[in-house]
Amino acid sequence: MDLSVTDFLALDAVTVQFGALRAVDEVSLRVRKGERRAIIGPNGAGKTTLFNAITGVVRATTGKVLFEGADVTRTAIHERARRGMSRTFQITNLFPNLTVAENMRLALRGLSPRKFSLLGSPALNSEEAGRADRALEVSRLGARRDSRVKEMSYGEQRQLEMAMALAAQPRLLLLDEPAAGLSPSERVIVSDIIRALPRDLTLVLIEHDMDLVLSLVDYVTVLNNGKLLVEAPPAEIRLNKDVQDVYLGKARHHA
Ligand SMILES: Nc1ncnc2c1ncn2[C@@H]1O[C@H](COP(=O)(O)OP(=O)(O)OP(=O)(O)O)[C@@H](O)[C@H]1O
């Protein structure tokens, strides 16, 4: 077996502890290059904390995170980003008074809005501008470059977040609830965008909408109380009794 293919992203017994709470409890998983993986589970299961441990927002208390064979467990966020990890957040992270193009510039330069206003509007070089344009096209915002973020729909704002994450040309893209808060028609747009992403881009996504998620991914990891409950292809997930008890049952009660 080719280890460089099988172990694109590997978590070995990762635990993230907040005081007495094990938000993530000895989770091990392997994601292959080009795979599309969903992380699902009820509220508080540890999904976002697991994302944070992968990207470096929090450090694993114990266990290891390996990215393309390198141990990145203690590596800073920006260094993990430089190695090819990119993510979106559950809550939008945009600058509402700036245009789409200006937000893209900030994302590419990693600047704060304060520095941005002090420096004016530093132009992108042609390679960066090309990347920004391609990411906007893929995210179906090619015609919205000059729109102010605050004038766009929430769905378009989520698309812009995706464009900003894609502009970094990641090899691993992590999407935290990309369809949360969207209308049914906006969900269709976001799922079409995700489906059309290059197949060699490895994708890990958290999503509460089961129909959406099961139609997008190759494999599903279910967390419950910080622990890995089930790993299976989408077709098996709906039929799994443990998943029905723990996840679908709770989701029905929420509805
Ligand atoms: N910084 C923190 N300090 C203390 N506890 C935290 C922190 N971050 C998360 N938690 C707790 O860890 C547990 C897991 O939270 P997490 O946000 O990872 O779950 P989740 O599966 O993403 O939930 P949701 O679906 O509601 O977003 C929860 O009990 C949460 O309250």
TrEMBL record:
<feature type="domain" description="ABC transporter">
    <location>
        <begin position="9"/>
        <end position="250"/>
    </location>
</feature>
<dbReference type="InterPro" id="IPR027417">
    <property type="entry name" value="P-loop_NTPase"/>
</dbReference>
<protein>
    <submittedName>
        <fullName>Amino acid/amide ABC transporter ATP-binding protein 1 (HAAT family)</fullName>
    </submittedName>
</protein>
<dbReference type="GO" id="GO:1903805">
    <property type="term" value="P:L-valine import across plasma membrane"/>
</dbReference>
<dbReference type="GO" id="GO:0016887">
    <property type="term" value="F:ATP hydrolysis activity"/>
</dbReference>
<keyword id="KW-0813">Transport</keyword>
<dbReference type="InterPro" id="IPR051120">
    <property type="entry name" value="ABC_AA/LPS_Transport"/>
</dbReference>
<dbReference type="GO" id="GO:0015188">
    <property type="term" value="F:L-isoleucine transmembrane transporter activity"/>
</dbReference>
<dbReference type="GO" id="GO:0005886">
    <property type="term" value="C:plasma membrane"/>
</dbReference>
<keyword id="KW-0067">ATP-binding</keyword>
<dbReference type="InterPro" id="IPR003593">
    <property type="entry name" value="AAA+_ATPase"/>
</dbReference>
<dbReference type="GO" id="GO:0042941">
    <property type="term" value="P:D-alanine transmembrane transport"/>
</dbReference>
<keyword id="KW-0547">Nucleotide-binding</keyword>
<dbReference type="Pfam" id="PF00005">
    <property type="entry name" value="ABC_tran"/>
</dbReference>
<dbReference type="InterPro" id="IPR003439">
    <property type="entry name" value="ABC_transporter-like_ATP-bd"/>
</dbReference>
<dbReference type="GO" id="GO:0015808">
    <property type="term" value="P:L-alanine transport"/>
</dbReference>
<dbReference type="GO" id="GO:0005304">
    <property type="term" value="F:L-valine transmembrane transporter activity"/>
</dbReference>
<dbReference type="GO" id="GO:1903806">
    <property type="term" value="P:L-isoleucine import across plasma membrane"/>
</dbReference>
<dbReference type="GO" id="GO:0015192">
    <property type="term" value="F:L-phenylalanine transmembrane transporter activity"/>
</dbReference>
<dbReference type="GO" id="GO:0005524">
    <property type="term" value="F:ATP binding"/>
</dbReference>
